[in-house]
């Protein structure tokens, strides 16, 4: 995931899909709360770790650190800038 367009698509399209489902009242209630909480707590850290690993910034064994809150602040430039 070295391409910045692929990375931004991977982080924005699921969020847009969640907003669309919320607007359509597709899964109201606890399902939507669970989906909205799993996006920042599970999905985004794993996608960020995947990008950092593909760019060679982190090693293979430190993949579990994705679940530490605000761990990626020191990698802001590597994640969001080309």
Question: Segments where pLDDT lies below 50 for 5+ residues?
Answer: none
The general outline is: elongated
Total of DSSP H or I helical runs spanning 4+ residues: 3
- The number of domains is 1
Order of helices and strands: HHH
From the N-terminal CA to the C-terminal CA, the straight-line distance is 12 Å
How much β-strand is present in the residues?
under 5%
Helix content: 55-70%
Q: Rg to the nearest angstrom?
A: 14 Å
Oligomeric form? single chain
Q: What is the structural class? A: mainly alpha
Largest sheet: none
* Average pLDDT figure: 84
DSSP strand count? 0
Identify the notable features of this structure and list them briefly.
3 helices; 0% strand; elongated
Can I get a quick summary?
The chain is an all-alpha fold. The protein contains three helices and no strands.
Can you offer a commentary on this structure?
It is a single chain. By secondary structure, this protein is mostly helical. The chain has one domain. It has 3 helices and no strands. The radius of gyration is 14 Å and the shape is elongated. The termini are close together. The model has no long low-confidence stretch (mean pLDDT 84).
Which helices and strands, and how do they pair?
Elements lengths: L3 H20 L6 H25 L21 H5 L2
